[in-house]
Every structure is written in C-alpha cells, then in structure tokens.
Task: structure prediction
Amino acid sequence: MSITSEPIAENAADTSGKRRRRKRDKTIHTGESRLAFLLLAPTLIMLTVIVGYPIIKAIYQSFLTDPGLDSSGFFNEGNSWNGLANYKHWLLQQCPGAGGVTESCPTGNLGAQFWSSVGITIGFTVVTVLLETIIGMCFALMMHRAFKGRALVRVAILIPWAIPTAVIAKLWIVIFDPQGVLNNVLGTDFAWTSESGPARAAIVIADVWKTTPFIALLILAGLQGISNEIYESAKVDGANAWQRFWRITLPLVKPALAVAVIFRSLDVLRMYDLPWILTQGANGTTTMSILVVRQLNSGLNSASALSTITFIIIFAIALGLVRLFNANIVERGTR
Amino acid sequence: MTATSVGVPVGNTADRPIRPYKQGFNWGQAGNLAAIVLIAFWCLAPFYWMLVLALRDSDYTFDNTPWPTHVTLDNFRYAFDTSINSFGRSLINSLIIGTAVTVLSMLIGVFAGYALSRLVFRGKSIVLAAILGASMFPGVAILTPIFQLFSDWGWLGTYQGLILPQISFSIPLAVYTLTSFFADMPWELEEAARVDGCTPIQAFRKVILPLAAPAMFTTAILVFLASWNEFLLSSVLSNGVKSVEPSTVAIANFTAGPHIVPYTQTMAAGVIVTIPLVIVVLVFQRRIVSGLTAGGVKG
Result:
C-alpha cells in the first residue's frame, strides 16, 4: 500500500505539528519511538494474526490439490503440490477431464462462471459508484444551499446508512415482488429478481438507495470547508453558476470525493450480502464474493486460489484508483 | 441542533447564503424546500414502507395502499415465536458479538490511535497504510483459510469464531477514526502536563483520556454499528448454528412456516433490528456525522 501512504504521510506530518522542534530534542524522540512501538504492538499483532496469517495461508494453499477423485478414478487425499492448476482452473477455465487430460470446464461449473462474475462485479461497481457520486453530489449541493430543514435532512440521511444491508435486501425483495409496490407505482409487471436485466437493476437500485446519502454527507462536509469568499470573488469576476461549479466547487471537493469513490468502489467490489439475499446470485448476479463462498463447499484449496485472485483484482483496482486521483490532484496543483 | 456545522470545525463563512436576499415570493427558497422534501423522501420512503408492511395483516401483503391498513401486531408475535424461528435469540447474539467486538477493538485501537496521531516515530506512514490496507481486504480473502482453521478447531458456530474475524475490519475502523479524532484535540494541555513533569504515559492517562472520551464514544458507536450490520463472515462462520447466529443472518434465513412467504413477518423483524439503530442515529447524529466525515474529509 505504498501509494496510499502518500497523502496520509503528509497528513500525519501536518497533524503531529511541532515536528521540527521535536527532532532537535533527541531524548524525547527516542522515548516516543519506544512508546509508539508499545502502543502499536497490540493492533499490529492482532492484524497479523487475523488478516496477515490467513492471507499467507490462503496463498500457500492455493497451490495445493483439493481432496477428491483424481483423473484416474482414485481417491486423492488432497494437499499435494498442484502448481498453478487451481489458478488455471479459474483464469483459463480448465477442469480435470477423463484420462488425466485437462479440458475446458462445462457450463454450470463454478470455474466457468469466473470471468462472468468478474465482469458482473466490475459492472456493478462502475454503475453504482457513478450513480451514487452524481446523485450524491446533487444532494450535497441541495443541502448546502438549503438552511431550513437541513438538520432534519441530516437525520434522515443517516437512516439508509444505519439499516443493516441484510434488512435492506429483504425490504427490497418485498418492494421488487411482481405484485409489489414498485410495479404498482410504475404500472409495470417486471419479475424483477428472476430475469437478469431487472435483477441487476434491482441490486443497483437497492445499493444506490442505501449509499447515496452517505456519499452526499461526505461531499457536504467537503463543501462546507470551501470559503464563501472564493465564490464571491469569482462572481465579481463574472463567472456564471456553471463555471463556479466546474472551476471552484468540483476541484475543491475533489479530495473528499476521491476518498468516497475509492472506499465505495472497494465496498462494491467485495459486495456479497445484497445480491446474495436478493437473488442468491441467480440470473447473472453472481459477484466474485458470492463465487468464493459457493466454492467453499467444493474445495477449499481451489477456493483459496479464487479468493487470492479476487484479492489481487480488488487490490489492483484500488491502486489504480488511488493513482488516478493522485495524478489529477498533482496536475491541478501545477496548473 | 442548529444547522450550522456538520462536524467540520473550519469555515463558518460557508454558512452564509450564497444568493442575495430577494423581496416577495422567493423561488430559490421554494426550490430549496422542494430539494429538502425530495431528499427526505428518498431516505425515508423505503423505511416507511417497511413499517407499514410490518404492521399489515399478512393476508393483505400486496394491498399496496400507501398508508397503514389492516393493522395488526401479529407479525411481531411471529418474529419472536421461538417454535418457528430463532429471531429473538439472534438479537441477543448480535448484542453479545457487537459488544465483544467493540470492547476488544477499542481497548486495542485506542493506543494505536494515540500513537499514530501524536507520537513522532519512524515508519508511521507505513503502519497507517498497513492498517488502512487491512481494512480494505475483501472479507472473502480471509474467509477461506479462517473457515478451514475454524472447522479444524471446532470453532464454526461458536461466539469466539464469530467475534475474532470481525476484528479484521473493526480494529482498522477504530484506529482510523480515532487517529483523525485525536489529531483534532487540544493537545496543548498535554504539552502543559508534560512541561509540569508528567511522563508521556501519565499525560495520556490523566489529561488526554478524559478529553478523548467523546471521540472514543463516537468511534465505539461506529464500530458497534459495523459489527451489528456484518453479514458475510457471520453467515458463513455461524455455519447454520441457530444458537449463535446474529440477527442479520437470522433475517436473511427468516421463515414463518411452510409454504408461507413471510414478507410481513420479515419486515416486522427488520423493524425490530432497525429501531435501535434509528434511535442511536437520532440521539447521536451530530457525533456520528463528525465520525464519518473525519476520515473522509482529511483523507
């Protein structure tokens, strides 16, 4: 995570304040280092045990065979060296065939669903995060302009965020029922969760409903940090409302926006509960996380390979997003 | 509860209206009001619908009248009927798991938060990045090996098996939120205590800890909510053991008897799970907003 450390490092340097003075005072400094190590030790030990160790174990296991009948029909106890076979199973859809040859996985096999689940997950991420950011921005601007009732809206806006996703999924199942209120209001008769298009739309709608207010809240906090004088002087210089938005508001809320987009993207990329409860992953809604959980019952070492791949994909996208936003921030600063 | 500050201490200037004041009917004001109504509708309408359905006789599930009709409390009775499902038990389980996760991560995280926000040491940014990185791991990445370990140890469907894995996201959340809160506190008092001869540990215990109580309380609320709402780890690691599964898992598997689609009963259960959260949000909204935006704005 060396990339993410850059803005944090700056921030840490700012907040720790009198750094220069402290550096001169050597005795306090070394004392602080020792204290810091002691204070951080419990956190780092816990995270090593609960996050670090399982991930390393998963990477190791992903190179082992799963117990089961091998290609010649004998029972194989598993956990013998398997090279990249598990990875080939997922990435290249190779399944062990009869007589020891590998063949491409039949449709319906979990391995055959890998790329579609990657596509579905990334599709969900792009669509939901885009919608949430745009609508959230509108909400934040509205709330920023309005004074009466802002306290009320601020309470209302926390409610979708606070309700457990499992409950929200159940609520939307009822709303999306063919006889439910949504079809009633829209005058349609979609079988929302039993066709691939509407099922995906249902998941996007439910997620956008829950998270847009949260993003609006983050953007609103960013908006409130912008001094009004900048707008006033821009107005004096003859900038219209549109220009003020593009040239002042957007660049200045960008740091808040970037954090919201990165965190939300990571959330959607690992999304499990909403699609699992709404559709059980049926009708083209199997996300990467759902695929991993389904694989748990049919081979843990292969599941380890899948979760490692999932982890690497999410990590790469996160890194890309951080790069993207950083690059733009630098670019803006030099202009 | 004035509407002037949403957890951002700087920039009172932003609260002044941007538009000049106008005489007569104010279209801007009307537009603002419409916007407020729109946002409130967005946030509250589905929740309102859950309430209406929870109170509606299950025979009239698809009545679709927008206000409460056929009002009954039967659904709530169903939800707590132990002969049909274990929902009541699951609420207690959620409380046990949430409390344990919160206490554990606060006890561990508060020291790390202090060190990261206040002390100068080598490798601070690496530690922060590692903690933040840990929170970004997809749950499934640790789920597979943990599932295997716990099934070897017989920990599937036990409280410790549900509590410990949640530390993976709750400690980073606690440390991250506490670090940004602590960075904003009046640390001159600590300096003064240090000048007066306190050791760093004494300064922490006698000056900072009382000052930090609100920040810690807010962080604890956020951690508890995150644990209360967790689904992926709980649903897999509870392994179908009804006596330990939390309420989110119980609701996902909610049944009201054979051949009944338990819509209204599920909504009643949903309302019961949600009401405490709504109360917490109403009471502590200002703190929660500042906790949520603390990390976000400072990045």
Observations:
- Confidence is low (pLDDT under 50) at residues 1-18, 327-335 of chain A.
